[in-house]
Amino acid sequence: MNTFARLAVGLALCTSITAAQGKPNFSGTWEPIDGGPVQTVTHANDKLTIGHASEGGGHGFVYKTDGTENHSTLMNIKSVAVVTVNGDTLTIARVDNYPDGRVRENTQQWSLDAEGRLVIESKDGLKGETPATRKTTYKKRGILDH
């Protein structure tokens, strides 16, 4: 293989590694370290699917991660969410409109820490009020975990 061909192959390999590093994958079954509902996440092809068990069969949400609006309704609460990926961080910005006129704003920033744990930092509250902040760390369930 000549020098030019080696350089081209090396450059293509570096580019593909950089592209792979720029898009995190949050897929997995995630268990909160401090207790709480287990989250099941599928993150592929510019789509994020999140689910957890709850009364009535559980909750699930499907979001496009391309920055366009995602509309959903749960128990007469109409929501609009925008999900974006910037580097190694995924952000979900959601506004919930309640039938009584209240508006709730929620922002979550997802990232993976150095140990591969999912870290979600969130701000949540009614519009016009100081939001509550929370940081939740999840460990990924492995094949041997139950």
Architecture overview:
The chain is mainly β and about 150 residues long. It has one domain (about 25-140): Calycin beta-barrel core domain (Lipocalin, Beta Barrel). It has 1 helix and 10 strands; from the N terminus they run αββββββββββ. It has one helix spanning about 5-20; strands at about 30, 40-45, 45-50, 60-65, 70-75, 75-85, 90-95, 105-110, 120-125, 130-140. The protein has a 10-stranded antiparallel beta sheet with strand order 4-3-2-1-10-9-8-7-6-5, with no helix packed on it. The longest helix has 20 residues, at about 5-20. Residues about 5-20 have low confidence and may be disordered.
What's the helix and strand layout?
Layout: H1 3-22, E1 28-32, E2 39-44, E3 47-52, E4 59-64, E5 69-74, E6 77-86, E7 89-97, E8 103-112, E9 118-126, E10 132-140
Antiparallel strand pairs: 1-2, 1-10, 2-3, 3-4, 5-6, 6-7, 7-8, 8-9, 9-10
Shape: globular
CATH topology: Lipocalin
Q: CATH superfamily name?
A: Calycin beta-barrel core domain
Q: How many individual helices?
A: 1
Estimated radius of gyration: 19 Å
Briefly say what this structure is.
The chain is mainly β. It is built from one helix and ten strands; from the N terminus they run αββββββββββ.
Give short descriptive properties of this protein:
146 residues, mainly beta, ten-stranded antiparallel beta sheet, 10 strands
